[in-house]
Amino acid sequence: MVFLLFFIAAIFTVLSAIKLSTYADVLSERTSLGGMLVGTIFLAGATSLPEVTTTLTAIVGLKNTDLAVGSVLGSNMFNLLIIAAFDLYYRKNQIFKSASHSHVYTISVGMLLSCLIFLALTLKLPYSILGIGFDTIILIIIYASGMYLISKKVTNFEDEDEDKDGVSQTSAISLKKAIIGFIIAAFVILISGSLLSITGDRIAIVTGLGSSFVGSFLIAASTSLPEAVAVLIAIQLRNYNLAIGSILGSNLFNILILIGSDVFYRPASILSAASSVHSITAIATFLLSVIILYSLLRSKVQKNQTVYWLPSAVLIFFYFVSSFLIFIN
């Protein structure tokens, strides 16, 4: 029964998050926001709502730090798998080759935060200020500084995806309908995302796999399905900046969720209380991000790439190696 409930919750999470992505795109279009900004902030925030509910439910309702930390870090890993898999499948389109250089700043901030999370999980600092871990405070400062840098770069950036081919699939949706639809879809996400956490915790107990693995793989994959659909739609519209921006922006938003969850976790810093197994996920996310960074930088200097697909193939390989390491630990 618990598996059936998990499956139903995953379906509702995906369907409602797809609607969220659609309505978020309408809102950004009606307010004249650029494609990269839509991907990095609006679309990323909308498709990351399942991570918000699953993390808060795991912390507040279940008191399960491993499920919370695992779902956030696991989602970041899975998101990078998504963009690599689509890049490999649509290798003739050379997605990274057409991407804006501004994505380099986004992924660089994500890499720095992943590295700091790895150190926090490894060192497990016992210090806190007003109940908030000292490591979390450092993450807040780095995150805020990184977002300020990104906002400055995006302000000076003229979107390259405004002249994309094809007709917008959301042009017929009114602004009023988009606002109402966004609120309804967000409410469904709130319910289904919470159910994902509860059933995921039960699956961890029933199967004996442990909260670390279930959070890092099973729930992370389920809550990342909206990102996968959003990326697929963006690629089909040949809006590669939107596709890449939604994934990289979602990863930053997930880290913000992890930072915020420490406020609700009172006994200690959430990262100091979590299992050291998550350090594998954190460092794996960092290494996979290095591959994405290389793909973004490489595309600017190499025009004819006979082995364009190789970095994405390597990323997919390392993803499954990392998942295996998490499982055996």
TrEMBL record:
Localization annotation: Membrane
Pfam families recorded: Na_Ca_ex
Source taxon at top rank: Bacteria
Transmembrane segments: 67-90, 102-121, 127-150, 178-200, 212-235, 242-265, 277-296, 308-328
Record's bilayer topology term: Multi-pass membrane protein
GO biological process: intracellular calcium ion homeostasis
Keywords recorded for this protein, A-Z: Membrane, Transmembrane, Transmembrane helix
GO CC annotation: plasma membrane
Residues covered by the Sodium/calcium exchanger membrane region domain: 2-147, 178-326
Chief site of localization: membrane
Protein name, per record: Cation transporter
Naturally occurring in which organism (per UniProt): Anaerobacillus alkalidiazotrophicus
